[in-house]
Fold these 2 entries.
Entry 1:
Amino acid sequence: MAKCELCELREYTQRYAQFVHPFKFTILDCDSCDTPMVVLGEHRANATDQERSIMIEALSVIARAKYGEDKFVIDGVMRQIPDHCHIHARPIIRWQG
Ligand SMILES: [Zn+2]
Ligand SMILES: [Zn+2]
């Protein structure tokens, strides 16, 4: 069975939530971006639409608490590990004034 660093999910970043039902996924800070991300509990590239919407919903709760309403974007692009589904919530940086 294929393994990657998203399967292992090392313990040194902030963890927010670990879901087991209706399927397994974890929300934690990405150690390279330092932003919250949701990681599917299985090693596969694509989540179903239903899985994706549940993960985004849960990630948005965390991101709203951390950054504020409408202060983040959901980023589903998998740059570093394209074969294990994960989604980032990235803060929107606005110029002040
Ligand atoms: Zn994996
Ligand atoms: Zn990242």
Entry 2:
Amino acid sequence: MHKEIGHNAQNNVQAERQPPTRVISISSGKGGVGKTNTVANLAVALARLGKRSLLMDADLGLGNLDLLFGVQPEYNITHLLSGAKTIDEVLVKGPDNILILPAASGVQELTNLTADERLSLIAHLESLSVKFDIMLIDTGAGISDNVLFFSGASHDIMVVVTPHGASITDACALMKALLKKRGERSFKLLVNGVKSRKEGLEAYRNVVALASTMRLDISVDYLACVPFDENVRRSAARRMTVMEAFPESKASMGYEELARVVLDLPYPATMKGGMQFFWRRTFDAANRA
Ligand SMILES: Nc1ncnc2c1ncn2[C@@H]1O[C@H](COP(=O)(O)OP(=O)(O)O)[C@@H](O)[C@H]1O
Ligand SMILES: [Mg+2]
């Protein structure tokens, strides 16, 4: 099943000609705002634009990315970290050639990982010879070490909010923690579950206003908004992403727009080939932890 993931000299040659893998973490202050749906649907939308994604379910306790894709992973990240399984055995294939590194279900908190275990995880990912255009990390909600670690190790930190006050307050608390503990100053905002584009922009302005009141020296860029759409829940009940089940729905249009915006993001100036920049930052973060 995972044959094509093994080491392959030709892949490596191709990889050197490819642009680097952009690593994006998807976080939120509050749970249930739509992170997992964002990761899954963004990956499908990117695939439709010819881009290949690797998804890491880093929401270890509550990981459910596999459910949305209707796949049943035999193994998960804990088998990889214990050395029981190789990364080729742990990765599962979703639709459109999307690869998923599944989370455990409440067995072990990633926050308990030692610096060595984090570095081992990095080494496993680095050993993949298949290259990806984008790596999306579903970090889970809140300001646990898990979230801070993966957000700090990404090129871009996408923060998901809904138009509701609590999610905006908690998003600002998350950005404050990332600023104070990781020195992160640049964030990208996705507003999910909006009634209108106007409501999305209002939520963005509310985030910026609150960050300013809290005297956070950060920049927050508006990415896109995804409409509230019952088809999201309906498709999840069918173990599918809304992009697959209802491609013409309002929500699918939102995810498609998000994919286009993500592909237009400028690459960080210091980024080199492969996932090097991600690894270097992860290494720094692991050593600081
Ligand atoms: N745009 C949307 N419209 C309607 N329901 C949504 C939308 N996005 C997410 N949901 C629903 O909200 C709930 C939480 O979504 P999920 O992606 O699991 O959030 P998180 O990963 O942040 O906890 C799910 O029941 C999902 O179906
Ligand atoms: Mg989730």
